[in-house]
Amino acid sequence: MAEKEPYIRPNWDDYFLEVMHALAKRATCDRGRTACVIVKDNQILCSGYVGSPPGLPHCDEVGHLMKMVTDEDGHQSMHCMRTIHAEQNAICQAAKRGISIEGATLYCKLAPCRTCAMLLIACGIKHIVAEYPYHAGSEAEEMLRTAGISLKFINKEPLKY
């Protein structure tokens, strides 16, 4: 009889990233299908995924609302403006339910953009575990470091979408 392999529990980072992947299936914009989960003391406080504000049409229903964005270094790229980012939705969820996220850890598919980074700094997030860097994230990453927020990447290369 073959010997049974021992079960190995996932570590906390892997566990919360797996939860984040399940949440991403609810995203309503196919450009990245991102999500995040905010955790403190290994307990989930709130979560968010990319989607339009409640009551407004979703990208998956009516298409993207694309706009040209110019980064500080002059790089231009197209971004969908129809949706709220996962981090913004998670912050709104925490606010609506009266949950403090100060001192918490954010697990996300893509590292936060500049706007989300500023909001997370203001909310008191202390750690971020991102599966992938954001394609235009150097400014946001520097802001997070300056604010004393640790940023850990699972993969070093930005996700292509």
Structure commentary:
The protein has 161 residues and is α/β, with parallel strands linked by helices. Helices cover 30% and strands 24% of the residues. The strands form 2 sheets. A 5-stranded mixed sheet has the order 2-1-5-6-7, sandwiched between helices. The chain has a two-stranded antiparallel ribbon with strand order 3-4. A hairpin with a 2-residue loop joins strand 1 (35-40) and strand 2 (43-49). Helix 4 (114-123) runs parallel beside helix 5. The protein is globular and about 60 Å long.
**Describe the biggest sheet?**
5 strands, mixed
How large, in whole angstroms, is the Cα Rg? Answer: 17 Å
Placed side by side, the strands forming the largest sheet appear as 2-1-5-6-7
Measured distance between first and last alpha carbons: 47 Å
> Helical proportion?
25-40%
The structural class is alpha/beta
Spatial shape: globular
Give me the count of strands.
7
Query: Low-confidence spans: pLDDT under 50, at least 5 residues?
Result: none
In percent, how much strand structure appears in the residues? 15-25%
Give the ordered list of helices and strands: HEEHEEHEHEHE
Mean pLDDT: 92
Query: Total helix count?
Result: 5
Topology of helices and strands:
Layout (H helix, E strand, L loop, with lengths): L11 H13 L10 E6 L2 E7 L9 H4 L3 E5 L5 E5 L5 H12 L7 E6 L3 H10 L3 E6 L5 H9 L3 E4 L8
Parallel strand pairs: 5-6, 6-7
Antiparallel strand pairs: 1-2, 1-5, 3-4
List keywords for this structure.
single chain, 161 residues, alpha/beta, 5-stranded mixed beta sheet, two-stranded antiparallel ribbon, 5 helices, 24% strand
